[in-house]
Write a structure and sequence with these properties.
The protein has helices at about 5-15, 25, 50-65, 120-125, 145-150, 155-160, 165, 195-200, 235-245, 260-270, 300-310, 325-335, 335-345, 360-375, 400-425, 440-445, 450-460; strands at about 20, 45, 70, 90-95, 100-105, 110-115, 130, 165-175, 180, 210-215, 215-220, 220-230, 250-260, 280-290, 315-320, 345-355, 380-385, 390-395. The chain is α+β, with helices and mostly antiparallel strands. It folds into four domains: about 5-95, 2-Layer Sandwich (Uridine Diphospho-n-acetylenolpyruvylglucosamine Reductase, domain 2); about 100-220, Uridine Diphospho-n-acetylenolpyruvylglucosamine Reductase, domain 3; about 220-335, Alpha-Beta Plaits; about 345-430, Alpha-Beta Plaits, CATH 3.30.70. β8 and β9 form a beta hairpin. The two termini are about 35 Å apart.
């Protein structure tokens, strides 16, 4: 019996028929990333049902030298949960581990396993008059473990921060099969390094997240969503500062959308309607929320804020949601941008960030630079103005061969975009991670000292390089 056969037999006995699958046809959907850019092969699909099984499986992999690719909802944007083409890695799914271990309503925290889907976490919290204040377009498939491993952001970072700010405690299995368990949160804990933060955002290269204690917030009693027409992105930045002054911590979201993206969405969603009568160069989507004690004053707050904006010449037009249905319809326009742009044709997408105050100037500089350098291309930027995160898409000329364009001009365009981002002091990954899509660019443009530090941490925690090889580091 070969070493491979021995491993497969031991893994099958450990996990049982529900937890181990060797037929590639059965797990083929999990071998391609969400964007369809990467497809790999795997030795088998392992689906443990608890942390003990994960730990025993990792120890088994360590003994046999089998690498592991952890995967949550397979909704990542950078190929970080897709195995390579060798077929030698074990695909480790956390989707069976979705238990809620503890829900502390009084202290507003929940301890849950890594496979819990974000949408289900939202519903769980809502049932107790609470909420988990992070949301994104893939909430129906994204899992807690994946969100932690990529330090996911979303549209509420402006007020609540990314996953780093919402994780109170963490449990993870390390490369040797030992279990790092610090699920109990402490307000003050000065016993050296904050090791959970080392694992958050490490994309499964340092440990496999199996559970977490997360921060919950009071449920929203009411909200208003405001759609604003603007002449420029600089005007949007001025309006953001105005809204922050007026609404303070009640300002939950501030998204910017160019007219091109809105037009794409309206074509993509046949029943959708533009919130404003006239077209505008830029649009802002603003959300202001209120808890129970603030709800009665929310209408007056929003009306006063927008009246002052009109009087100050900050906006061209605006519409305030009159119902929850209208609020959801406005958000649907924003959340449909990525699929709408994808439906228009081949493109390269970039998740980048610059200092918040530099975003308008950066976007106004980079769009003409890219379009001038690549004849026939169209560049669009949209995203989270309040935290400096821009989603920058470059659409290919009509009629190009998709594969050839991605391998040639598309790759060169991305390199130019990242060069410009670094020149502006920004990051080539704001919230999607590095994965395998941006690994080479990180090596090319990253700070050498920071890269060396990450390599030393990887070597210390995973000396055999078995955890998610070929990603991030």
């Amino acid at each position: 019996m070969t070493n491979k056969e021995t491993f497969l037999g031991e893994a099958a006995r450990l996990l049982g028929p529900k937890g181990f699958e060797t037929d590639p046809a059965e797990f083929a959907p999990w071998l391609t990333d969400w964007r369809g850019r990467f497809t790999g092969r795997a030795l088998a699909l392992a689906s443990p049902q608890n942390t003990r099984e994960v730990a025993e499986l990792v120890r088994l992999c360590a003994r046999h030298g089998v690498s592991i690719v952890p995967q949550g909802g397979n909704s990542g944007m950078v190929g970080g949960a897709t195995p390579d083409s060798s077929g030698n890695a074990l695909l480790l799914s956390l989707r069976r581990m979705k238990a809620v271990r503890d829900l502390d309503v009084t202290n507003r925290k929940v301890t849950c396993e890594a496979g819990l889907v974000l949408h289900n976490l939202h519903e769980l919290a809502a049932g107790q008059g609470l909420r988990f204040p992070l949301t994104l377009g893939g909430k129906g498939s994204a899992t807690v473990g994946g969100l932690i491993s990529t330090n996911a952001g979303g549209s509420q970072v402006l007020r609540h921060g990314s996953m780093r700010a919402l994780v109170l405690g963490l449990e993870a299995v390390l490369a040797d099969g030992s279990v790092f368990s610090m699920l109990t949160p402490l307000k003050k804990d000065n016993r050296g390094f904050d090791l959970k933060q080392l694992l958050i955002g490490s994309e499964g290269t340092l440990g496999i997240v199996t559970a977490a204690t997360l921060k919950l917030s009071p449920a929203i009693a009411d909200r208003k969503v405001i759609w604003v027409g603007l002449p420029s992105l600089k005007a949007a930045r001025t309006l953001l500062l105005h809204c922050q002054d007026h609404a303070g911590p009640q300002l939950e979201g501030f998204e910017v959308i160019p007219q091109h993206c809105l037009d794409s969405v309206l074509q993509y969603l046949p029943d959708a309607r533009a919130p404003l009568v006239e077209a505008h160069a830029w649009h802002a989507l603003i959300e202001v929320i209120a808890d129970a004690g603030q709800a009665t004053a929310l209408d007056a707050l929003c009306e006063g804020m927008m009246t002052a904006a009109f009087e100050g010449g900050l906006v061209e037009d605006a519409a305030i949601s009159a119902s929850e249905a209208q609020a959801e319809a406005m958000w649907l326009l924003r959340e449909s941008i990525a699929p709408a742009e994808r439906a228009k044709g081949t493109a390269v997408q970039h998740d980048i960030s610059v200092a918040v105050e530099k975003m308008p100037e950066f976007v106004e500089a980079i769009i003409p630079a890219i379009e001038a350098a690549w004849s026939g291309s169209r560049a669009v930027a949209f995203g989270h103005l309040g935290d400096g995160n821009v989603h920058f898409h470059v659409l290919a000329p009509v009629g190009v061969d998709e594969a050839a364009w991605h391998a040639g001009d598309g790759k060169a365009i991305s390199s130019q975009v990242y060069d410009l981002v670094v020149a502006w002091g920004g990051s080539i990954s704001a919230e999607h991670g590095i994965g395998q899509l941006k690994r080479d660019e990180l090596r090319r443009l990253g700070d050498p000292v920071a890269l060396a530090m990450m390599a030393r941490v990887k070597q210390a925690l995973d000396p055999a390089g078995l955890l998610n090889p070929g990603k991030l580091t």
